[in-house]
Write a structure and sequence with these properties.
- The chain is of the alpha/beta class.
- The chain has a single domain, classed as Nucleoside Triphosphate Pyrophosphohydrolase.
- The chain has helices spanning 76-94, 99-114, 156-160, 187-192, 195-203; strands at residues 20-33, 36-43, 51-52, 55-57, 119-134, 139-153, 166-170, 178-179, 182-184, 206-207.
- The strands form two sheets. Strands 1, 2, 4, 5, 6, 7 and 10 form a seven-stranded mixed β-sheet that branches. The protein has a three-stranded mixed β-sheet with strand order 3-9-8.
- Strand 8 (178-179) and strand 9 form a beta hairpin.
């Protein structure tokens, strides 16, 4: 469940108040190649998840497996604000993972994954907060998703001909929920429904 602006001041149902905090950094590449234009999405684990994602960096992230929010009668806005305070105190101030450090970590992992020598991030899309329920763990998790856009790579061929993951090119259309029978992770259609995100993606189009 993505926390959208229109529900910020609504109360979070008590059974949905998260007890776990997590985060991820996503890197989007909007490309025009041959007869296709759109963002590259990857099926990183077809056996277990079989879902299409943007590139995400998860080796260095903020996670708290057991967390109790300060009150039970809480709105979605207050949920996010408390998360942000804890994130800043622990992950940024205490551990030194400020924005520039996080971006460099994302770039380094992207280069390593796709055997690239140079990647440049030019813009940031709106962040997303999402509540997810794990049936196996019986726990609600609040995710903070940072979203960035690359505007150049040193080798288009290396990026598009990688063999590590199955990849597809997704048009910038929020109505698309799956490609060739494989579903998109829920945050991508939402991200593409925001006009400012579309503008930034189009402004950073890479042509092959």
């Amino acid at each position: 469940m993505i926390i959208t602006r229109n529900i910020l001041d609504e109360k979070v149902p008590k059974q949905m108040i998260p007890t776990r905090l997590d985060s991820a950094m996503n890197l989007y590449t909007n490309i025009s190649y041959k007869d296709k234009t759109g963002i590259i999405v990857y099926n990183t684990n077809p056996t277990t998840w079989n879902c299409l994602y943007s590139f995400y960096e998860l080796n260095h992230k903020f996670t708290i497996d057991e967390y109790n929010f300060s009150k039970e009668d809480i709105t979605y806005r207050e949920l996010i604000e408390e998360y942000q305070k804890v994130y800043k105190k622990i992950y940024e101030d205490k551990k030194g993972n400020i924005r520039n450090v996080r971006i460099q970590t994302l770039i380094d992992e992207y280069k390593k994954t796709f055997n690239l020598k140079d990647v440049h991030i030019n813009d940031e899309l709106l962040p997303i907060f999402e509540l997810k329920y794990s049936k196996s763990k019986n726990v609600w998790t609040l995710y903070y998703l940072e979203n960035y856009v690359a505007d150049s790579v040193n080798s288009f061929d290396d990026l598009l001909n990688q063999k590590l993951y199955e990849q597809k090119i997704l048009p910038l259309d929020s109505c698309i929920k799956e490609l060739d029978g494989v579903g998109l992770t829920s945050n991508i259609p939402y991200l593409l429904s925001i006009e400012s995100n579309i503008e930034k993606l189009n402004n950073n189009l890479m042509k092959g």
